[in-house]
Amino acid sequence: MRFALLIPLILIACGEPAAPAKNTPEGAGKPEGTVYGDGVKITRTMKVSEVIAKADELEGDTVRVEGLVTGVCAKRGCWFKMASDKEFESITFKVTDGVIVFPMSMKGKYAVAEGVVQKLPLDLEQTRAFLKHKAEEAGETFDPTTVTEAMTIIRLKGTGAVVRAQP
Fold it and tell me: Which H/E stretch holds residue 7?
């Protein structure tokens, strides 16, 4: 009788290990790749478009997003831009200068990132100054008279990220 009970236990112990879970919108295990900051602990991934659409509700909450890195701060490596699941939409993942430094080589790679949702309402002059700064970073000209409305920036105050070549 004891032998009959041991066989299932031995088979379980010696069996093939389960394959690691893949990242899905419903969440999964720990992402693989180069870890920055505290890495990623949250298992449920939110779409970037959902974070942007629900910024009022999510402000102050820590969320996990995934996507293609479309830009990196060339001066201090203090932020990266991540493409949304919606065309022409993105979110910025910003850290305090020097706390985490993202290399320019991240551009074009896939990131899983975790951070606190922030809404930064700007007045008209702040909006113009922000857009002027962005144009200068991109080497573009900027005409402040074309900006007639204030904007609100929605971004993630980053705590950690994992970056890899493929999604």
Answer: helix 2-14
Mean pLDDT of the chain, nearest integer = 84
E-assigned strand segments in 95-167? 110-121, 152-164
pLDDT, average across residues 19-46: 73
- Give tens-digit pLDDT for 73-114: 988 889 999 999 999 999 999 999 889 999 999 999 999 999
SS3 72: strand
pTM, full prediction = 0.76
Q: How far apart are CA 80 and CA 17, in angstroms?
A: 36
The amino acid that residue 24 corresponds to is T
Q: Regarding beta strands 62-72 and 152-164, do their DSSP bridges make them parallel or antiparallel, or are they unpaired?
A: unpaired
Provide, rounded to the nearest whole percent, the portion of the chain with pLDDT above 70: 82
Q: Quote the pLDDT of residue 78.
A: 92
User: How many angstroms from the chain centroid is the CA of residue 137?
Assistant: 21
* Rounded-to-integer distance, Cα 90 and Cα 52, Å: 9
What CA–CA distance (Å, rounded) separates 66 from 68? 7
Domains of the chain: 33-119+154-164 (2.40.50.140)
Among 60, 59, 64, 32, CA closest to 45: 64
